[in-house]
Amino acid sequence: MATDLSSLAALAADTAHDLTSEAALRGVYATGPGDTSLAKVCDHVHPLYRPYIEAAPFAVLATRGPNGLDTSPRGDGPGFVVVADDKTLLLPDRRGNQRIDSLRNVVHDPHVALLFLIPGVGEALRVNGSARISASPALCASLAVDGKAPASVLVIRVASVFFQCARAVKRSSLWDAAAQIGRDALPSPGLILQTLSESRIDGAAYDAALQARQAATLY
Fold it and tell me: Is the pTM of this model over 0.70?
Protein backbone atom coordinates (compact mmCIF):
# COMPACT_ATOMS: atom_id res chain seq x y z
CA MET A 1 0.00 0.00 0.00
CA ALA A 2 1.28 3.47 -0.88
CA THR A 3 2.54 5.49 2.09
CA ASP A 4 3.06 8.88 0.44
CA LEU A 5 0.04 10.74 1.81
CA SER A 6 0.34 13.66 -0.61
CA SER A 7 0.22 11.22 -3.54
CA LEU A 8 -2.75 9.44 -2.01
CA ALA A 9 -4.57 12.74 -1.53
CA ALA A 10 -3.98 13.62 -5.19
CA LEU A 11 -5.25 10.24 -6.32
CA ALA A 12 -8.31 10.56 -4.12
CA ALA A 13 -9.10 13.99 -5.57
CA ASP A 14 -9.37 12.54 -9.09
CA THR A 15 -13.09 12.08 -9.83
CA ALA A 16 -12.68 10.68 -13.34
CA HIS A 17 -13.25 7.12 -12.17
CA ASP A 18 -16.03 7.73 -9.66
CA LEU A 19 -18.82 5.16 -9.72
CA THR A 20 -22.05 7.15 -9.82
CA SER A 21 -24.67 4.61 -10.85
CA GLU A 22 -25.63 1.04 -10.05
CA ALA A 23 -24.62 0.07 -13.57
CA ALA A 24 -21.15 1.51 -12.96
CA LEU A 25 -20.93 -0.33 -9.67
CA ARG A 26 -21.81 -3.61 -11.33
CA GLY A 27 -19.06 -2.99 -13.85
CA VAL A 28 -16.60 -3.28 -10.95
CA TYR A 29 -18.52 -5.77 -8.80
CA ALA A 30 -19.61 -7.86 -11.75
CA THR A 31 -20.21 -11.17 -10.05
CA GLY A 32 -22.92 -9.87 -7.74
CA PRO A 33 -23.81 -11.38 -4.38
CA GLY A 34 -23.82 -15.15 -4.07
CA ASP A 35 -26.69 -17.18 -2.73
CA THR A 36 -25.20 -17.24 0.78
CA SER A 37 -25.15 -13.43 0.84
CA LEU A 38 -28.87 -13.30 0.08
CA ALA A 39 -30.24 -16.37 1.87
CA LYS A 40 -29.13 -15.09 5.29
CA VAL A 41 -31.51 -12.11 5.28
CA CYS A 42 -34.68 -12.27 7.40
CA ASP A 43 -37.44 -9.71 7.89
CA HIS A 44 -37.61 -10.55 11.60
CA VAL A 45 -35.42 -11.72 14.47
CA HIS A 46 -35.10 -15.38 13.58
CA PRO A 47 -34.55 -17.78 16.53
CA LEU A 48 -31.01 -18.35 15.21
CA TYR A 49 -30.30 -14.61 15.23
CA ARG A 50 -31.79 -13.87 18.62
CA PRO A 51 -28.80 -15.33 20.56
CA TYR A 52 -26.47 -12.88 18.78
CA ILE A 53 -28.46 -9.91 20.05
CA GLU A 54 -28.77 -11.39 23.53
CA ALA A 55 -25.01 -12.03 23.71
CA ALA A 56 -23.91 -8.64 22.40
CA PRO A 57 -22.64 -6.08 24.94
CA PHE A 58 -21.96 -3.49 22.23
CA ALA A 59 -23.72 -2.07 19.20
CA VAL A 60 -23.39 0.89 16.86
CA LEU A 61 -26.60 2.81 16.18
CA ALA A 62 -26.84 4.60 12.82
CA THR A 63 -29.39 7.36 12.22
CA ARG A 64 -29.92 10.19 9.78
CA GLY A 65 -31.44 13.62 10.15
CA PRO A 66 -31.47 17.17 8.75
CA ASN A 67 -27.73 17.55 9.35
CA GLY A 68 -26.79 14.21 7.81
CA LEU A 69 -25.77 10.84 9.21
CA ASP A 70 -24.67 9.89 12.69
CA THR A 71 -23.30 6.77 14.34
CA SER A 72 -23.41 6.30 18.09
CA PRO A 73 -21.79 3.57 20.23
CA ARG A 74 -24.16 1.82 22.62
CA GLY A 75 -23.06 -0.67 25.23
CA ASP A 76 -24.10 -2.41 28.43
CA GLY A 77 -24.34 -5.95 29.75
CA PRO A 78 -25.04 -8.69 27.19
CA GLY A 79 -28.65 -8.47 26.08
CA PHE A 80 -28.93 -4.73 26.80
CA VAL A 81 -30.90 -4.49 23.56
CA VAL A 82 -34.02 -6.45 24.42
CA VAL A 83 -35.79 -8.68 21.90
CA ALA A 84 -39.41 -7.92 22.85
CA ASP A 85 -40.70 -10.07 20.00
CA ASP A 86 -39.47 -11.15 16.58
CA LYS A 87 -40.24 -7.74 15.07
CA THR A 88 -39.46 -5.45 18.01
CA LEU A 89 -36.21 -4.44 19.73
CA LEU A 90 -35.95 -2.17 22.76
CA LEU A 91 -32.83 0.00 23.14
CA PRO A 92 -32.68 1.89 26.47
CA ASP A 93 -31.04 5.30 26.30
CA ARG A 94 -28.63 5.25 29.23
CA ARG A 95 -26.93 8.24 30.77
CA GLY A 96 -24.78 10.09 28.23
CA ASN A 97 -23.54 13.46 27.13
CA GLN A 98 -27.00 14.98 26.50
CA ARG A 99 -26.19 15.76 22.86
CA ILE A 100 -29.09 13.46 21.87
CA ASP A 101 -27.81 13.38 18.27
CA SER A 102 -29.39 10.00 17.54
CA LEU A 103 -32.70 10.85 19.17
CA ARG A 104 -32.97 14.20 17.38
CA ASN A 105 -32.39 12.36 14.12
CA VAL A 106 -35.08 9.78 14.87
CA VAL A 107 -37.56 12.60 15.51
CA HIS A 108 -36.98 13.72 11.92
CA ASP A 109 -36.39 10.34 10.26
CA PRO A 110 -37.31 7.03 11.90
CA HIS A 111 -34.95 4.88 9.82
CA VAL A 112 -32.22 3.28 11.93
CA ALA A 113 -29.58 0.58 11.66
CA LEU A 114 -27.72 -1.41 14.31
CA LEU A 115 -24.43 -3.28 14.10
CA PHE A 116 -23.96 -5.75 16.97
CA LEU A 117 -20.48 -6.91 18.01
CA ILE A 118 -19.72 -9.79 20.37
CA PRO A 119 -16.22 -10.09 21.88
CA GLY A 120 -14.38 -13.07 20.44
CA VAL A 121 -16.90 -13.66 17.64
CA GLY A 122 -15.94 -12.74 14.09
CA GLU A 123 -19.44 -12.43 12.70
CA ALA A 124 -21.39 -9.23 13.36
CA LEU A 125 -25.16 -8.89 13.22
CA ARG A 126 -26.85 -6.17 11.20
CA VAL A 127 -30.37 -4.94 11.83
CA ASN A 128 -32.26 -2.36 9.78
CA GLY A 129 -35.60 -0.90 10.71
CA SER A 130 -37.47 2.12 11.99
CA ALA A 131 -37.74 3.54 15.48
CA ARG A 132 -39.88 5.65 17.72
CA ILE A 133 -38.85 7.19 21.04
CA SER A 134 -40.87 6.18 24.09
CA ALA A 135 -40.67 7.96 27.43
CA SER A 136 -43.30 5.67 28.97
CA PRO A 137 -42.56 5.65 32.73
CA ALA A 138 -43.57 1.99 32.94
CA LEU A 139 -41.39 0.92 30.01
CA CYS A 140 -38.39 2.92 31.23
CA ALA A 141 -38.79 1.54 34.76
CA SER A 142 -38.88 -2.02 33.42
CA LEU A 143 -35.44 -1.50 31.88
CA ALA A 144 -33.77 0.07 34.93
CA VAL A 145 -30.25 -0.92 35.92
CA ASP A 146 -28.98 -0.37 39.46
CA GLY A 147 -32.33 1.23 40.20
CA LYS A 148 -31.85 3.86 37.49
CA ALA A 149 -34.26 3.92 34.56
CA PRO A 150 -33.22 5.10 31.10
CA ALA A 151 -34.44 8.55 30.09
CA SER A 152 -36.19 7.01 27.07
CA VAL A 153 -36.32 3.83 25.03
CA LEU A 154 -35.97 3.36 21.30
CA VAL A 155 -38.69 0.99 20.16
CA ILE A 156 -37.31 -0.45 16.93
CA ARG A 157 -39.48 -2.11 14.31
CA VAL A 158 -37.30 -4.68 12.55
CA ALA A 159 -37.22 -4.65 8.74
CA SER A 160 -34.21 -6.88 8.05
CA VAL A 161 -31.66 -8.92 10.01
CA PHE A 162 -28.56 -10.70 8.75
CA PHE A 163 -25.08 -11.65 9.82
CA GLN A 164 -21.95 -10.02 8.41
CA CYS A 165 -19.10 -12.38 7.67
CA ALA A 166 -15.93 -12.27 9.77
CA ARG A 167 -13.52 -10.91 7.15
CA ALA A 168 -13.45 -7.34 8.49
CA VAL A 169 -12.95 -8.49 12.07
CA LYS A 170 -10.21 -10.90 11.00
CA ARG A 171 -8.42 -8.28 8.90
CA SER A 172 -8.56 -5.82 11.78
CA SER A 173 -7.48 -8.35 14.46
CA LEU A 174 -10.18 -6.67 16.53
CA TRP A 175 -10.35 -9.36 19.20
CA ASP A 176 -6.63 -10.19 19.21
CA ALA A 177 -5.16 -9.10 22.53
CA ALA A 178 -1.76 -8.70 20.87
CA ALA A 179 -3.21 -6.02 18.60
CA GLN A 180 -4.33 -3.79 21.47
CA ILE A 181 -2.48 -0.52 21.97
CA GLY A 182 -1.88 1.42 25.15
CA ARG A 183 -4.28 4.26 25.90
CA ASP A 184 -1.36 6.68 26.12
CA ALA A 185 -0.55 6.02 22.45
CA LEU A 186 -3.40 8.36 21.48
CA PRO A 187 -4.28 11.93 22.48
CA SER A 188 -6.31 11.95 25.68
CA PRO A 189 -9.86 13.33 25.87
CA GLY A 190 -8.58 16.15 28.07
CA LEU A 191 -5.90 17.17 25.57
CA ILE A 192 -8.45 17.18 22.76
CA LEU A 193 -10.90 19.28 24.78
CA GLN A 194 -8.24 21.74 25.93
CA THR A 195 -6.92 22.18 22.40
CA LEU A 196 -10.29 22.53 20.65
CA SER A 197 -11.65 24.83 23.36
CA GLU A 198 -8.52 27.00 23.09
CA SER A 199 -7.71 26.22 26.74
CA ARG A 200 -11.15 27.16 28.04
CA ILE A 201 -11.25 23.62 29.43
CA ASP A 202 -8.46 22.39 31.71
CA GLY A 203 -7.41 19.17 29.99
CA ALA A 204 -5.25 17.82 32.80
CA ALA A 205 -8.04 18.28 35.34
CA TYR A 206 -10.53 16.67 32.99
CA ASP A 207 -8.33 13.60 32.47
CA ALA A 208 -7.56 13.31 36.19
CA ALA A 209 -11.26 13.15 37.09
CA LEU A 210 -12.47 11.18 34.05
CA GLN A 211 -12.33 7.57 35.25
CA ALA A 212 -13.95 8.28 38.61
CA ARG A 213 -16.61 10.45 36.99
CA GLN A 214 -17.49 7.81 34.41
CA ALA A 215 -17.63 5.08 37.03
CA ALA A 216 -20.01 7.18 39.12
CA THR A 217 -22.29 8.12 36.23
CA LEU A 218 -22.65 4.95 34.13
CA TYR A 219 -26.40 4.87 34.91
Answer: yes
